[in-house]
């Protein structure tokens, strides 16, 4: 089974469609969406409906902090621009779309795989996995061999051996990485809708379960079209400008 791991879609239709097309061409047989379907971008309804359609066909989906903010109100520590977009997004979604976001679980276990937006140790508190310390804490919080996280917008990979030795990688796109199950692995695919590592190309990863490999991908997309939609919607222009620079 080839499992496409897609996270932090952030209402970016152009990026999400490009990622889905690429994943299909790479032979994806199942999809996992790791949260933050809305926020920042100008196409929240299309992105939510796209995820809903995939879930009906067997995809996994968990909720992120922007999804929770849209249905329950933004958290006090959210930046002003993010809060403004959430308020705008609430007016763009229909009740069935809001209900879908409202009912998303914070985490989901499937066999020896854990899917969660932020981390395994406190999913509802939205703490970031910024480095090895947080990654190890997350891996200690689950018996699963594979943990797939979003929230961080840069692709990263961490592992923990049975003896407690931890390691990390900054992955090279399109290069398969062996991920045997005698170690625990924490995978951050990077953001599909708003990469922040200086590369504007959309991020996702493919987990090939039979081959025990993980491949990170970067997919160019029409970020100018996505940016223009943000400006036309009257959303903060900084959110449009950053797409061209992967910030």
From TrEMBL:
Stored InterPro entries: Ap4A_hydrolase, Calcineurin-like_PHP_lpxH, Metallo-depent_PP-like, Pesterase_MJ0912
Cited Pfam families: Metallophos_2
Calcineurin-like phosphoesterase domain sequence ranges: 1-208
Family from the record: Belongs to the metallophosphoesterase superfamily. YfcE family.
Designated name of the protein: Metallophosphoesterase family protein
Species annotation: Ideonella lacteola
């Amino acid at each position: 089974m080839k499992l496409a791991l897609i996270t932090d879609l952030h209402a970016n239709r152009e990026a999400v469609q490009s990622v889905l097309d690429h994943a299909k061409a790479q032979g994806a047989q199942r999809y996992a969406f790791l949260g933050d379907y809305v926020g920042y971008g100008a196409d929240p309804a299309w992105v939510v409906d796209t995820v809903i359609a995939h879930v009906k066909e067997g995809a996994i989906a968990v909720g992120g902090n922007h999804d929770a903010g849209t249905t329950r109100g933004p958290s006090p520590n959210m930046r002003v621009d993010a809060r403004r977009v959430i308020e705008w997004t609430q007016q763009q979604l229909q009740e069935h779309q809001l209900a879908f976001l409202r009912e998303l679980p914070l985490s989901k276990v499937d066999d020896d795989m854990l899917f969660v937006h932020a981390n395994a140790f406190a999913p509802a508190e939205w703490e970031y996995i910024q480095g090895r310390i947080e990654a190890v804490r997350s891996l200690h919080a689950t018996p699963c061999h594979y943990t797939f996280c979003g929230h961080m917008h840069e692709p990263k990979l961490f592992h923990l051996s049975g003896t407690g030795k931890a390691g990390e990688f900054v992955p090279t796109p399109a290069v398969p990485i062996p991920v045997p199950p005698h170690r625990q692995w924490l995978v951050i695919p990077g953001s599909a809708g708003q990469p922040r590592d200086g590369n504007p190309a959309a991020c996702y990863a493919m987990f090939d379960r039979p081959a025990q490999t993980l491949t990170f991908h970067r997919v160019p997309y029409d970020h100018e079209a996505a940016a223009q939609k943000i400006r036309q919607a009257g959303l903060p222009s900084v959110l449009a400008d950053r797409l061209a620079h992967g910030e």
